[in-house]
Amino acid sequence: MNKKRRTDINSYIQSKGEVTMNELENLFPQVSSMTLRRDLNYLESQNKIIRTRGGAKSIEFLSIGAQEERYLKKTLTHIDEKNIIAAKAVKLISPERSIFLDAGSTSMCLAKMLPDERYYVFTSAPNVAMEVVYSTSSTVNLTGGEINRDNLAVSGAGAVEFMENVNVDIAFIGVPAFDLHNGFSCGNINDSQLKKAIIKRAAKVVVLMDSYKNGINLPYTFARLSDVDIVISDGKLPKEFLDEAKKNNVKVL
Amino acid sequence: MNKKRRTDINSYIQSKGEVTMNELENLFPQVSSMTLRRDLNYLESQNKIIRTRGGAKSIEFLSIGAQEERYLKKTLTHIDEKNIIAAKAVKLISPERSIFLDAGSTSMCLAKMLPDERYYVFTSAPNVAMEVVYSTSSTVNLTGGEINRDNLAVSGAGAVEFMENVNVDIAFIGVPAFDLHNGFSCGNINDSQLKKAIIKRAAKVVVLMDSYKNGINLPYTFARLSDVDIVISDGKLPKEFLDEAKKNNVKVL
DNA sequence: AATTCGGTTGTTTGAAATGAACAATAAAGG
DNA sequence: CCTTTATTGTTCATTTCAAACAACCGAATT
Fold first, then answer.
1. Is the C-beta of residue B51 closer than 7 Å to nucleic acid chain C?
2. pTM of the entire structure?
3. Does A21 score more than 90 pLDDT?
4. How many Å apart are CA A100 and CA A148, to the nearest integer?
5. Which domains does chain A have, with CATH numbers?
6. I want to staple B75 with a disulfide (CB 3.0 to 4.6 A). Which of A23, A73, B87, B105 is the partner?
């Protein structure tokens, strides 16, 4: 079995949403269509895609209902960068640890990549929580409060209080905006307070930030560079950022 | 175009997850397979199902990954009864009200039926919360705490405390078991405490109970018949239950 | 090096599913 | 009652499919 071909086919389908046999045959002229069909069947058995007449569709794509499109758009922008970041982040996690996963599409990416082990997971996002419950054997805790329609985060007074009483080994914080002068900021006061509370409680603070977030300002600063331990990005951050990080003893991956 | 046939086909697919053409042909012997195929294509164009070779699959179902199957099984047992119950329940709800939706598959059914209005929704289930966020314009509040893998309920001390501070006009409580002697009971102490707290805070308490739950005992009683205002069931409850309900001034739908 | 073995890939082939095109039927409107 | 339009049924050529077997590859064993 050619594993690479199968993962290639899968990523192609995941990025395009669907394929036809003809497409695949052009894409992989070296292999026979029977083999491609076998690959599709395999991927279907793994619940990655579903077979249709003359091709296949991505399950990810289908599972996103019409109403979710607004959120979907955000999920899909810069998806490659987010996958890179999440792949780096998942390496920092080991079983039986207590981890916090923020709300947002990058964290969701990370949640999907978690190996099926037992962790103690805290999160403020119901979608992340469900993903972790389903795909790992972890204990999952969710902060309570009102759900923000934009990023699906639960926040508010209750959430802050909840997080003030837990110890986390490693917290993964999504970042809506960063600016050298104002630090990490976001557009919602509740989210900002929750992030602050978590950063205070976490032994290690890891920030997930794709390079498009750099140079943007939002109203509420929740952390400075000096407050975090590791910044994970996609390798396209400018030199000034890297210098400033080094000055603050922050590792950049 | 026969609209009823198409909605029938759709609900059949939604409840079973998938169909084959043969199945449909047996189900609708009056119509030709070409027509059925046309129906499937139509439903696909409406994003209700996706066509496969020799049949179709529910989109809802696909979004449920392999790991979710355990929960899925519960979702699918007695699905008709649950739909009947949810349909009755949704009639009790009007816009701008503050409502509580319990965890569990019956509540999830109810959530899916909510018209797109603005409510103030409180729930202890992240899947219910997401459904309501996506399909209505409501303000959605989630209780915090640990997620129970069996029923996807968030419960624990935090959840109880959270619910003690809110006012709900109408609470829909799912029931795992009922017995004339021990009242409504469930198998988890945390869930039981949360249900108790909600019943205390709700102006009107509505219990969603399919008839299969009658005559079963579980360790933790969270309410007596006299504590609730309305019991919604599927019309298959025994006379003794109805008598007892009348004695306690409980309406049975 | 030759042999064997497990697994993957290619080819042939008959069966199944599909949709186009046209015929039949039902429904709607004058 | 006739005309028009939409839906449904039937036939049929085309496409897609997987079973079965053959060929191939690579690794382990002799």
1. yes
2. 0.72
3. yes
4. 18
5. 2-65 (1.10.10), 77-252 (3.40.50.1360)
6. B105
